[in-house]
Amino acid sequence: MSRGGAPPDVPAAMELSREGEATLVARLTGSWRLAGALPEAALLERELDQAPAAAARIDAAGVAGWDTGLVVFVWSALESLRARGVPVTRDGFPPALERMLALVQETAHPPQPPAPARGLLVRTGRLALRARERAWDLASFVGETTQALWRFLTRRARFRGQDLGLLLDGAGPGALPIVALVNFLVGIILAFVGITQLRRFGAEYYVADIVGIAVARDMAALITAVVLAGRSGAAYAAQLATMKVTQEIDALRTLGISPTEFLVVPRLVALTLMMPFLTLFADLMGILGGAAVGTTMMNQALAAYLRQTAQSVTSGDVVGGLAKSAVYGALIALTGTARGLEAERSSERVGEAATRAVVSGVVAIIAACGIFQYVFFLFGW
Amino acid sequence: MDDTILRVRDLTMAFGDRVLVEGLDFGIRRGEIYVVMGGSGCGKSTLLRHLLGLQEPAVGEVLYGEESFTRAGPADRERMLRRCGVLYQGSALWTSMTLAENVALPIQQFTDLPPERIREVVELKLALVGLHGFESFHPWELSGGMQKRAGLARAIALDPEILFIDEPSASLDPPTGRRLDRLILELRDALGTTVVVVTHDVASILGIGTRALFLDAESRKALAEGPPAELRDHGPGKVRAFFAGGLSP
């Protein structure tokens, strides 16, 4: 918006005077544009503080050019004079300015702002209420998921088969390269640490046992789960949070399709099914990583290294690791989808949901790993 | 004096080899509300994208005043676009920001105003669209109509010379759509802004349009241009059918 022709060089100014004792007059002159320095409406208030007036008049006849800067000034001035109960007359206002002021005053109807939270007690109460709400949401999510999973197992769940296929592909074959690389490197690290420590006792020959057992029982499942938490868990959270922003989830609900059945269960099934396969592959890669170090640092033949690994690792170790991995897979899917579904409808929350999915996924995996260790120890497995 | 603020010269719009509309030639005068109308798939929104440089013409050019926008370099284009405000069909408010932040962003980026002055301008712009007091609200906390108005406040944040509006009444109920139309008219009168509206809403076209351009998907041409009421009463058969509701939007 640019009014009053080409911008003149005369700067904006406000001249205050009195008409008799009762009326304060503000004469506006020059170019009232945002880009220049503009007088503040607070000047009027200061003048009235010093010498009160029964009425005020704003004269804009001397304004040579104007834009939003003048509107902002006049609006503020009128509001502050009205708040003081000083009646205002307007002279020489351009018609367009009058229209804008009418528009602002006609449409302004501010809502009551929420009362600000004050005091420790109020804040504690709010925190407690929020915690209760979150606990309720979590319980609802777990309940709905269990129900939806039962419907899936009894073939009554509504979902698309091709979606499940794509999810299986994304969670399984799609993750093979990164799972292979990371677990191979972990095998190398374990072997290095093992050889370095065992050499002090002349027992470095047992590095194949240590690497094999560690990988098969825990490390392959754990490392694969952490990789998948960053890869699939974050993706699930971002997908679902975006679907919330674009109201796709609302669309499912209004169609009578449960988002839990349609979105959560397929992801849960895909990751729970794929994790054991990935972990089995990760076992192999971890052992090969250990073998790479074992054969080069100890001049041991590859066949001998692998034979020793096979003798030390029991089927129970492998099956235990695979069982853990299935649980980790379920936890990743659940945390990822829960974070996605609880996100608010904003693009910022999409990123936040992905971050929280990874963090809570990894925490859940580590916690589950600790519980598994304790249970396995109790039963002597 | 030529008061044409935006001119389209021999424009052909195409997706690859598929020509959407060809031979478009029209000018938009300062201060008018120019409506681009037509049925679904006729290229209305694509034309808007061409006017804003979001899509390049296959043939022809767009001029802002006498200056070619199509042939301009990135810096000149940015300068020309600075004169424009856009209200998108879905409002396109940044959902992670409050309404005040949405409106403030262009002012912060393109002016040197101090924060206090920016806050005043933001309040004024929101008040102009009837959203004073909603500064701290996020877009998702508002109704569709309020989001549209907030989008409008952001579009006029920098006092644009030309305001582009894509389907103002889309996804709004008719009364809300009419209220938005009235607001556009009032803003045009108050701000003196030239408004380019893309719509298929007949009530909106007749309610606010100064002149209108009818695009036809079948012939891939502009069939008619003129004041909406005149087109409704005396335009080509296809245009009259459109106004009578005989052409599906």
Main traits of this protein?
heterodimer; A: 381 residues; alpha/beta; four-stranded mixed β-sheet; 9% strand; elongated; B: 249 residues; six-stranded mixed β-sheet; four-stranded antiparallel β-sheet
Provide the helix percentage of chain A.
55-70%
Largest interface: A-B, 30 and 34 residues
Low-confidence stretches of chain B: none
What does the average pLDDT of chain B come to? Answer: 89
Q: Radius of gyration of chain A from the CA trace?
A: 35 Å
Please state the overall shape of chain A, judged from the principal axes of the Cα atoms: elongated
Termini separation of chain A (Å)? 78 Å
Number of strands of chain B: 10
Quick description:
Chain A has 381 residues and is of the alpha/beta class. Chain A has twelve helices and four strands. Chain A is elongated.
Textual characterization of the structure:
The complex is a heterodimer of chains A (381) and B (249). With 381 residues, chain A is an alpha/beta fold. Chain A is 69% helix and 9% strand. Chain A contains 12 helices and 4 strands, in the order E-E-H-E-H-E-H-H-H-H-H-H-H-H-H-H. In chain A, strands 1-2-3-4 form a 4-stranded mixed sheet, covered by helices on one side. In chain A, helix 6 packs antiparallel against helix 7. The longest helix of chain A is centred in the middle third of the chain and has 39 residues, at 207-245. By secondary structure, chain B is an alpha/beta fold. Chain B has helices at residues 44-51, 74-81, 99-110, 115-128, 144-155, 174-191, 202-208, 228-234, 237-243, and strands at 4-15, 18-29, 33-38, 59-64, 67-68, 84-87, 162-166, 194-198, 211-216, 221-226. In chain B, the strands form 2 sheets. Chain B has a 6-stranded mixed sheet with strand order 6-7-8-3-9-10, sandwiched between helices. The longest helix of chain B has 18 residues, at 174-191.
